[in-house]
Every structure is written in C-alpha cells, then in structure tokens.
Amino acid sequence: MSIKERVLVSRTIAVPADTNPWGDIFGGWILSLMDIAAGSIAARLAKGSIATKAINDVTFDTPIFVGDEVSVYAEVEKIGNTSMTLNIYVTIKRKGQDEELHAVKGKFIMVALNENRRPRPVREKWTDAEKADEVASA
C-alpha cells in the first residue's frame, strides 16, 4: 500500500445488534470498525504491534441503517518516525441499491510499539528494498 492509495479493508452488513436504544446504528460500532481498519493497515506497515494514539476530525455525514452494507476504506496520509496518520472512510449501500454513499470519515494516528509496548520507529522492521521503495514513491 502506498501513500494516498485508498484500499478496502472491510465490508459488513449493519444488523439490529449494532443499534443504540433508539434503533439507530450506534456510532461507537462504526468507530470500532474504523479503528480496526486503521489498526490493520498500521500493523501491516509497522510489521508488528501498534496502538491508537488519536482519533481526529470524525464526521458522521449520512445515517446508517440496519441492512446497509458498510464498507471501510483506509488511506495512508503520512508515515512519521514512530507514527502513521491514516484517513479512514466509511461508505454504505442501502438495501437493494447500487449507489455507494459517503457516510463517515476520520483521521487516525497509530503508533508502532516495541516488545515493551513503547513507541518504536515504524520502518525499524522494513527491509532495505522496502525503504528504497518508499523513497522512490515519495
């Protein structure tokens, strides 16, 4: 995955168990899907353990209903020394419709961790070829 390349990380269907007491899809469930997506990509980039440092600028732009197909996409914005910033996007398709609607977006900052659960350089476990590829694509 290269910087600014948007990739599909997960797809699921919203079900009644994902609702709040008023019957709407619970925002915390959506944030969980987004955090899992960010963690998946960050762990792959760091080649090891990661942790969520911050979640910023989350906006819920379109309501999500039971039966909607929920897709979560990730895009690496930047890779720092010990952290990565990822833009996470959620789109939906309503039951029986083909149009994909933008629903939620947010910025997730993930930190690479060493065996003592302390921050470590993201690129520490990269091969020389991977480091060279990153420089070439920058």
Count of DSSP E strands? 5
Rg, rounded, reads 16 Å
Strand and helix order: EHEEEEH
Contiguous uncertain segments of 5+ residues: none
Integer tally of domains: 1
Strand content: 35-45%
Q: Could you say what the CATH topology is called? A: Thiol Ester Dehydrase, Chain A
Can you tell me the overall shape?
A: elongated
The helicity comes to 10-25%
| SS summary, helix count | 2
Q: Strand count, sense and closure of the main sheet?
A: 5 strands, antiparallel
Instruction: Identify the CATH architecture.
Output: Roll
The chain-level structural class is alpha+beta
What's the end-to-end separation, in Å? 13 Å
Tell me briefly what this model is:
With 138 residues, the protein is α+β, with helices and mostly antiparallel strands.
Q: Explain this structure to me?
A:
The chain has a single domain, classed as Hotdog Thioesterase (Thiol Ester Dehydrase, Chain A, Roll). A 5-stranded antiparallel β-sheet has the order 1-3-4-5-2, with helices on one face. It has 138 residues and is α+β, with helices and mostly antiparallel strands. The two termini are 13 Å apart. Helices cover 22% and strands 38% of the residues. The chain contains 2 helices and 5 strands, in the order βαββββα.
Features:
138 residues; alpha+beta; Thiol Ester Dehydrase, Chain A; five-stranded antiparallel sheet; elongated
SSE order and pairing:
Elements (H helix, E strand, L loop, with lengths): L5 E8 L13 H20 L3 E11 L8 E11 L3 E11 L7 E12 L15 H10 L1
Antiparallel strand pairs: 1-3, 2-5, 3-4, 4-5
